[in-house]
Structure formats: C-alpha cells, structure tokens
C-alpha cells in the first residue's frame, strides 16, 4: 500500500523534461524524514539534480525524474489501478521505480546515496554531470526484475535522399526519391555491423524508422525524401565502424547523412560487487537466481560506467510499454523491487 501511495504522488505531479523540480519538495520531505541530507546541484542545462546522502556509503541509487511528454496519453497524470496494474505516464519509466526506492529507504536505515537526475529522456546530462562518488551504482529502469549488465549503443541519424521531379503521369521521366529512400532504409538494415551478435542480447530488429517526409503532390514525382531512424549498436561493435558503414552507404546513393546523436555501447563485469550484491538480494527476496541480460536502450548507467563507476540496471515492469498510451507496471513487482533495494542497502558495506 505504501509503494502505491508514493507512486500516486509521483505520477500525479507532471515532470516532462524541464519540470523535474516540481517533485523535489515531495522527494526532499520523504528523504529528510528518513534521515537523509539533501542538496540540489545545478547542471549546465540550468536545471538541478537532487542528491541525498544518509551516513557514509559507497552505494548509489540513481533515477531520472523526467518523463516522456504526455502526447496522446488519455489520462497521463492520474494514477489508475486495474487489478494489479498501475497505469499512468511515467509509472514504469521510472516513477514506479522511485516509489519502490523510497519505500526501501523507509524499511531500512543503513547508509546509502541517491541521485535524482534530470533530462534522461533527451540529453541525459543529469547523470553525466551529477557530483557523486560511488563504488557501485544501481540505476532504476524497467528490466522485468532482471539485472542489466550490458547496453546497446545507438546512432540517431537523418538521411536526405534526392531524386528528380517529373509529371506524376510520367514517372519514367523522373527518379522517385521516396522509393529511393525505401531502398536506402532496407540496405541500412543489412549493413555488416548489424549482423553481429552478443550472448546477452536475443535477436531483435536493430533499426527503428521513426519519421519520414517526402513528396508534394500525387502528380509530382518526388525529388526529395528525408527520414530519421535509430540504429542500435551491440557491445563489441565500434561506433566508428558503424558510422563509417552508414556514411559509405549514403554516399553510394548520393544522399546526405547527418548524425543527430550517439551513445556508446557498454558492459559491466558480472563479477563486480554491485552486480553480485543485487543478484544476491534478488535471490534472497524471490527465491530464484536472476539471469543477467542486455538492454536495448540507453540508460544513465552508461554515463556512470564511462565515469568509472560500476553500474547495473534493475527495476519492475517492461521497457516495451514505456512512452506508450498504456504505460503500466505491476504493483506486486514494485513491492518486490522495494524489498530487493532494501536488502542491498542493508547488506552493503
């Protein structure tokens, strides 16, 4: 009941990117009541991270406070419950996880650190710039209660393909840029770097076409088509090699390719103390040994790993329903996560 109560306040306080501080008074109050010293840290975005410490500890929990915009969600900022499902914007990504963590620090009084960071859904500068030191980090995200020890990298790109305009009734006199773009998209999906495999990542589509624009009228052969896509890159694959293959393909078609954003793939050793502590806690609470896995999405753990902090990702629910109009998480899983977090805190030294 306590985790649901906390989740309701979190979900019903809208925090799309830029509005994270709306939750800070509530978070500060809960944490101070649990004996934490709380401070705000300014980032280069002009927005503040919230960092809390109880005692002296090398254990850090990290969660992003921003959510994806509401977009077409019918009731984004009202927590609803259908059977065991909690429903609302950000409930799985990752306000439900925050509720579980707050529940955990109310259950045990051992030392730990918490970083609530800004703008994970866009620039992720919150985790890059947060001022902390740690020997182990647990990043809260939906992982179906499995420890994530590897992340796929990503290349977000925009490609503009050029054709030749002609009368729509004489397409043979022109070159259709939309059809040409479709061929380019198909070829991207079969580039050599996308054929590599990794034991922690089951086969999956590695390319997401997110936006495409082209054409003026049905009676004009389109001479220009632009599309944006997300391309995932497995650990062990060089981002440089992937970009080289993408640029070479674009050049062969006379297209312009722009890299919009890049995140490097990452992986942490399963024998790191933080991974072993989390797995032991999960087994103690659930009775089953968890199987580590890879994550198809970026998380703040990548930045912590780049900074030299061993980091693992863990939380309730499925990434697949995040950002959707039916975003949900099982209350039972959140309550398990809360007990797992409490076990890690109590046994970390």
What brief labels describe this structure?
349 residues, alpha/beta, Aminopeptidase, Alpha-Beta Plaits, 2 domains, four-stranded antiparallel β-sheet, 9 helices, 16 strands, 30% helix, elongated
Would you kindly provide a written description of the structure presented here, covering whatever features stand out?
This protein has 349 residues and is of the alpha/beta class. It has two domains: 2-150 and 266-347, Aminopeptidase (3-Layer(aba) Sandwich), CATH 3.40.630.10; 153-263, 2-Layer Sandwich (Alpha-Beta Plaits). The chain is 30% helix and 25% strand. It contains nine helices and 16 strands. It has helices at 2-11, 24-33, 91-107, 125-129, 177-188, 239-252, 273-286, 301-306, 331-347, and strands spanning 37-42, 48-54, 59-64, 80-82, 85-87, 112-117, 136-140, 148-151, 153-162, 207-214, 224-233, 256-263, 266-267, 293-295, 311-314, 328-330. It has a six-stranded mixed sheet. Strands 10-11-9-12 form a four-stranded antiparallel sheet. It is elongated. The two termini are 30 Å apart.
SS summary, helix count: 9
Mean residue pLDDT = 97
CATH architecture of the largest domain: 3-Layer(aba) Sandwich
**Helix- and strand-based class?**
alpha/beta
Topology, pairings included?
Blueprint: H1 2-11, H2 24-33, E1 37-42, E2 48-54, E3 59-64, E4 80-82, E5 85-87, H3 91-107, E6 112-117, H4 125-129, E7 136-140, E8 148-151, E9 153-162, H5 177-188, E10 207-214, E11 224-233, H6 239-252, E12 256-263, E13 266-267, H7 273-286, E14 293-295, H8 301-306, E15 311-314, E16 328-330, H9 331-347
Parallel strand pairs: 3-6, 3-7, 7-15, 8-14
Antiparallel strand pairs: 1-2, 2-6, 4-5, 5-16, 8-13, 9-11, 9-12, 10-11
Helix pairs in contact: 1-3, 3-9, 7-9
């Amino acid at each position: 009941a306590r985790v649901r109560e906390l989740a309701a306040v979190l979900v019903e306080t809208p925090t799309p990117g830029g509005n994270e501080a709306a939750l800070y008074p509530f978070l500060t109050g809960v944490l101070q009541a649990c004996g934490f010293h709380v401070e705000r840290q300014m980032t280069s975005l002009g927005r503040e991270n919230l960092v809390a410490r109880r005692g002296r500890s090398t254990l850090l929990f990290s969660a992003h406070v921003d959510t994806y915009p509401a977009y077409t969600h019918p009731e984004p900022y009202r927590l609803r419950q259908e059977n065991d499902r909690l429903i609302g914007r950000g409930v799985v990504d990752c306000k439900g996880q925050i509720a579980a963590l707050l529940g955990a620090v109310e259950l045990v009084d051992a030392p730990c650190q918490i970083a609530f960071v800004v703008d994970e859904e866009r620039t992720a500068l919150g985790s890059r710039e947060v001022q902390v030191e740690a020997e182990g980090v647990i990043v809260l995200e939906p992982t179906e209660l499995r420890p994530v020890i590897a992340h796929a990298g990503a290349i977000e790109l925009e490609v503009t393909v050029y054709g030749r305009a002609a009368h729509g009734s004489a397409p043979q006199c022109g070159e259709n840029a939309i059809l040409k773009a479709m061929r380019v998209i198909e070829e991207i999906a079969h580039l050599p770097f996308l054929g590599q495999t990794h034991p922690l990542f089951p086969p999956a589509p590695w390319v997401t076409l997110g936006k495409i624009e082209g054409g003026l009228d049905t009676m004009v052969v389109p001479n220009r088509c632009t599309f944006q896509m997300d391309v995932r890159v497995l650990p062990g694959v060089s981002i440089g090699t992937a970009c080289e293959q993408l640029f070479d393909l674009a050049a062969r078609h006379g297209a312009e390719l722009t890299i919009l954003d890049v995140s490097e793939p990452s992986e942490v050793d399963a024998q790191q103390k933080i991974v072993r502590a989390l797995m032991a806690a999960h087994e103690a609470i659930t009775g089953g040994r968890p199987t580590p896995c890879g994550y198809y999405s970026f998380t703040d753990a990548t930045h912590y790993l780049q900074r030299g902090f061993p980091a693992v990702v863990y939380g309730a629910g499925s990434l697949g329903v995040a950002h959707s109009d039916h975003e949900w998480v099982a209350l039972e899983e959140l309550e398990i996560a809360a007990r797992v977090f409490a076990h890690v805190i109590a046994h970390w030294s």
